[in-house]
């Protein structure tokens, strides 16, 4: 029996524009996904897959990987995704699913699935580490996306990430002096990232605009004052709002909020970032947004 862990992630800058090569700043979360594995040499060529959400069984599947058939499952669509992904693992790996072994593979997502902290990317990174394959390539052929979340899961660190013209990233020290003033609020729903990305892709964009987000990311990384950081966040939100031609989250839900509110990731769901002010908990609770994390509760840096 072996175990692997990958942290979740939060994308702080360049949402959507990451696809076109804008520089991204992303950070790891305390919560992530565990992956445990056991292999038996019994000549049966079976995979017993169990996926737990916060220690409660969510998905169960038995897969014949000689013929790539689902023999048993409780959620067919999710089992089909797992089958496709594991088939990709077989094609990429030199050792896994080759020798008629039986595999008992178990995952446990430590955060609610609607948090948007990377249930799929942590899975891809865990599988890639286990099978000793390239996690970015496995992610690309199984899921798609820019891959920044794989870099965070792999490095377990804050990263600066760029996907175009080729994937490159570096671990960075993101430890703002005002971090204990930052808060993260869940919007009580999970945004469909693919839907948001498709909408973004349908709109024409310029390299100049992509470069503007890269510059914002660089400035945010080295920012030392909350006031300046807040200003940069507001500029970032307004640029994306203008481009997408949809209201920013502050205009939509928090127009009377006295501080900045910034979307993190696909607009319309998951988490937003803000900063503390007098009565901030009562303010957000009064709008039925009751899941509020401080930096030290959520971010693993």
UniProtKB/TrEMBL annotation:
It comes from the Bacteria. GO terms for molecular function: kinase activity. The lineage of its organism: Bacteria, Pseudomonadati, Bacteroidota, Flavobacteriia, Flavobacteriales. Keywords: Kinase, Transferase. Signal peptide: none annotated. This is Mevalonate kinase. SUPFAM superfamilies: Ribosomal protein S5 domain 2-like. It comes from Chryseobacterium arachidis. NCBIfam families: GHMP_GYDIA. InterPro entries: GHMP_GYDIA-like, Ribosomal_Su5_D2-typ_SF, Ribsml_uS5_D2-typ_fold_subgr.
